[in-house]
Amino acid sequence: MDLFITENNHIPEDGELVLDLKEKKIKIISKELNYSKEQVEYIYNNFFKDLEKEKKHINIRKSLLDYIINEFYIVRDILEFSKEIYRLNTINVYRGQRDSTWKLLPSIHRKRDKGKIDMENHEKKLYKNIRKQNHSEFKRQDEFINEIIKMQHYGVPTPLMDWTTNPLIALFFATSSGGDGKIFIADFKEQIKVEFDTDEFKKYSDFLEKIYKESETKKLENNFLEKTKIIFIETINENDRIRAQKGLFSFDTLPYLKMFFEFSERIEHIYSPYLEKLKTKAKETIEKNLKNKVQEYKDERDADKIFDGILSSLQSLNGVYPAEIGILVPTINEFKSKILKEIENFISINLTQNIETKSIIILEEDKEKIKKELEYLYGIDSSTVYPDLQGYIEYVKENF
I need a labelling partner for 175 at 20 to 30 A (CA). Which of 78, 89, 97, 223 fits? Predict the structure, then answer.
């Protein structure tokens, strides 16, 4: 990818990223990237100002171009970070990671992502080992989810992922050593929230308990088939770290649904809402045919084949029900992309938490400066983010 800096409204060609100084826009081929004029000016002044205009620049640091193409925003100081957070102007939650290449992957899944750990039994072995050691910190609690949160607190791998409502706390974590850092920003208004004093909280607590403790996992309410979105768990602030970090946790049930439900149950559940919508347009024979066809595909893992088989089955009834089939086929085709995506998600069991986020990048060379700004301007350092002995020791190691 070449960078082309211009003041003459240059139209991007294949393989070109164009920074247009006249319009203050960044473009790639026919697409205009989502940067404000202020952001374009900031990016230009900080990274490309000394380059000649009207020329391709092939020696630009590739990661910079990758960040821009992905519409990440790069900040070099705490002032610009604060401006960008203010521009978002919504209720958000934040997660800082010290390595920009890391996925949104909970710690329990990091080895699994490389295909190394058994999905069915790993949590059970882990929990059994914790109970065997009988550490007082891991005492049993009324709600099992609070045991998992305590494990997370001490760095034990869990399926929970830490977030914060304070963007400066996320910035602190992104400035830890380890390459370029990244802050993930999710719109909290759009997320499913579960609070500590609700029935839903207890349901998810029971769900986790089955994963970690029960030998028989094939017992779970069917309504969990619907719980395919990421949830955010707001807990009691029972320890100083959660309070100091303004913490909450995300949890994804989808990777575990295979432990509780047969593939055919899940596929049928995915189709059910669409079949309900089609009932008024389909005769009983057609509806029964569709459901039977879904059952036939319980061992199929190619979503396209599943879909093609169902449509083929409908077409076979065309001679008997031409009017109904004529309505159903295009209607089902309208559902196709959404259904295929849901099936693919279930087949692949993507362990990365699928949350729509914006991203801010912290370059490795700027981390130390921003870390000092956080400490001197806002009093945020290891001793305040981790207000315990371990945090104080980290602070001493960093500063003395």
Answer: 89
210-234 burial, b at 16+ Cβ within 10 Å, e below that, comes to: bbbeeeebeebeeebbebbebbbbb
Q: How far apart are CA 174 and CA 136, in angstroms?
A: 32
Helices (H), 175-230: 199-212
Which helix (DSSP H) or strand (DSSP E) does residue 55 occupy? strand 55-57
Average pLDDT, the chain: 81
Which helix (DSSP H) or strand (DSSP E) does residue 395 occupy? Answer: helix 389-399
Max avg pLDDT among 108-112, 135-139, 322-326:
108-112
Cα separation of the two ends of the chain: 44
pTM of the model: 0.80
- Judge whether 273 and 231 are in contact, CB under 8 Å: no
CB of 274 within 8 A of CB of 233?
Answer: no
Which residues share a beta bridge with 353? none
199-238 pLDDT tens trace: 888 888 888 888 888 766 566 666 666 666 788 988 776 6
Residue 144 amino acid letter: F
Cα dihedral sign, 29-31-34-37: positive
**Using an 8 Å Cβ cutoff, are 267 and 181 in contact?**
no
* Element holding 88 (H helix, E strand): helix 78-88
From edge to edge, which strands make up the β-sheet containing 16-20? 31-32, 25-28, 16-20, 2-6, 55-57
**Which amino acid belongs to residue 145?**
I
